[in-house]
Write a structure and sequence with these properties.
Blueprint lengths: L6 H11 L4 H8 L3 H9 L19 H9 L33 H11 L5 H8 L3 H8 L14 H4 L4 H18 L5 H6 L3 H6 L22 H11 L5 H5 L8 H4 L1
Helix pairs in contact: 1-2, 2-3, 5-7
Length: 253
């Protein structure tokens, strides 16, 4: 639940002008019950001027009357359009001055890894102009040799959810056109969560292509057969037997 602006001053006004319990006021303004009691005792928020929530369109008199009649009633902040979030952005995205120098790098990343995105979609994501996008696509940008592609989400130029929404929109358009996509293109056209959940296809490096059936292991039986053909050395005495013949006299001494 949203909290009122100037919470402490609002609590001061409610303590001074209503009979609402400390617990109800504390829950409404987001303070501790003892702190609200301290306001009533004059120990907390000394010198703070009360802020009227009715005049400032934060509470209605009917809501205050309900809270005074029932100690269990919780005060509800009056509906305000501004409290429900910003309105949908119109026009190009505003990019802070400190991040504008990073836009070419993010544009190059989007053009390289998501070429299916239109210039209007790229412009909406990073807040740039179509001539700049076109110059980077055609590599005619004045600083193209020094630009390195960087993810716009990592640069803080857009949110991951916004990028995923654009990619999914491009995927739906591609599917509607009936185009045939490769595996790499299909992975580019899905969101980050979907891409991470897909099984990776095993790929063989080009340097070892054709060696898929090569094995370093050998058959034990083949080794045994080869050993038998070379000779049977199971008898150790036969291995050390000398050839028949006369024994050298020097060896007998």
């Amino acid at each position: 639940m949203g909290k009122p602006i100037m919470a402490k001053a609002t609590a001061v006004w409610l303590v001074d002008n209503t009979t609402i319990s400390f617990k109800q006021i504390a829950d409404f303004v987001g303070m501790h019950e003892l702190e609200v009691q301290g306001i009533a005792d004059g120990d907390v928020a000394t010198g703070v001027k009360g802020f009227d929530p009715i005049t400032n369109n934060q509470l209605t008199q009917e809501e205050i009357d309900k809270a005074q009649a029932s100690p269990l009633h919780k005060l509800s902040l009056k509906f305000l359009a501004a409290a429900q979030g910003e309105e949908k952005r119109r026009g190009p995205r505003y990019t802070p001055l400190s991040k504008r120098q990073d836009r070419p790098a993010s544009i190059l990343w989007l053009v390289k890894f998501h070429p299916e995105l239109s210039d209007a979609q790229v412009s909406k994501l990073v807040g740039t102009t179509k001539p700049t996008i076109q110059a980077i696509r055609e590599r005619t940008h004045w600083n193209i040799s020094n630009i390195q592609p960087i993810d716009p989400v990592a640069l803080g130029l857009c949110k991951q959810s916004e990028l995923d929404a654009m990619v999914q929109k491009a995927a739906a358009k591609k599917a509607a056109e009936g185009g045939v996509m490769s595996d790499d293109e299909r992975r580019k056209l899905v969101s980050t969560e979907q891409s991470l959940g897909m099984d990776a296809e095993p790929k063989i490096p080009s340097a070892i292509e054709g060696l898929e059936t090569f094995s370093l292991s050998t058959d034990v039986e083949e080794d045994e057969d080869a050993a038998k053909t070379d000779g049977d050395f199971a008898d150790a005495d036969s291995f050390f037997n000398l050839p028949d013949g006369d024994v050298d006299e020097d060896d007998t001494k």
